[in-house]
Each structure stands twice: as structure tokens, then as C-alpha cells.
Design goal:
This protein has 3 helices and 3 strands; from the N terminus they run βββααα. The protein has a 3-stranded antiparallel beta sheet, with no helix packed on it. Helix 1 packs across helix 2, helix 1 crosses helix 3 and helix 2 packs antiparallel against helix 3.
């Protein structure tokens, strides 16, 4: 099985066009089993040169996003990818905080929101260690959110 590199649809090995989006699959087919692993899309030199900058959004929060954006200046696709993933995690955390504060009158919602925030924190830690390994994978759960694609 192979996956379309444009939309991630799982395809048969013998097709030349994606059945979902119509993308031509000549040389842009990802043979990976994980359609959310984008490591092969980035140059190895870009990854090695900008790995430390790509760690900043996960380590320093929104300030890290700003610092990484300023340091990379849009020149590194690898850093830009990780900035987008970190922004997804931070936005989900903020939305959970808003829901928890608005519905604080109930007892269960803030507890569930706190548990969800802990899950997001674990996802940030996992994403950080993936950057340490030179990977570009979309974080679990968050990868299904289509904003900031």
C-alpha cells in the first residue's frame, strides 16, 4: 500500500493518480506506513541545521514560536512545519482553558479540561523528542484537526 503525498489517502500500489484528490503520483508517492510522517519531505541538511530552532516552539510555548519564526525567517520548511504543529497544540490548550473557565460552574468540565491539557502537554513532550530525532510527524490526536494545515 502507498499513500498520496498531497492528501494522505491510502492507495493501491499500481495507481498513478490519487482517487481522492486526483494528484499525480509519479515521484511524489510516500511509501511510508504513516501518512502523517512528513520527514521525507524535508531536506536532511535543513533538518540538521535547524533542529535546535525547531525545538523552541515546544520548549518555550508561544514565545518559542515567535523566536523560532524570527530565527528561521521563513527559510526553513522544517522549522515552519514544527511552528505550525506547536501552534495547533497551543491553540487547543487555550480553547480548553476557555471552555474550563466558562463552564467552571459545573464541577466535571474543569476536571475533564485539566486532564485534556495534560494530554496536550504529553503530546508536546513527544513532539519535542521527535524533533530531537530529526522527525517531522504530526502529533497524535491534533493531526486530525485541519486548521493551520
Amino acid at each position: 500500500m502507498k499513500f498520496c503525498s498531497k492528501c494522505g489517502t491510502q492507495l493501491e500500489d499500481n495507481v498513478t493518480f490519487c482517487s481522492n484528490c486526483g494528484f499525480q503520483l509519479d515521484s511524489s508517492v510516500s511509501v511510508s506506513n504513516d501518512p502523517f510522517d512528513h520527514t521525507a519531505e524535508f531536506d536532511a541538511k535543513d533538518i540538521s541545521d535547524n533542529k535546535v530552532i525547531a525545538m523552541l516552539p515546544y520548549l518555550m510555548g508561544l514565545i518559542g514560536v515567535i523566536v523560532a519564526a524570527l530565527l528561521a525567517k521563513g527559510e526553513s520548511a522544517y522549522v515552519s512545519f514544527h511552528i505550525r504543529q506547536a501552534l495547533k497544540l497551543h491553540i487547543v490548550t487555550m480553547l480548553l482553558g476557555i471552555v474550563a473557565s466558562v463552564l467552571a460552574i459545573t464541577f466535571i468540565v474543569p476536571i475533564v479540561a485539566a486532564i485534556c491539557m495534560l494530554v496536550v502537554l504529553v503530546l508536546q513532550i513527544i513532539a519535542f523528542f521527535q524533533v530531537c530525532g530529526g522527525k517531522a510527524k504530526e502529533p497524535a490526536i491534533i493531526k486530525n484537526l485541519k486548521f493551520l494545515k
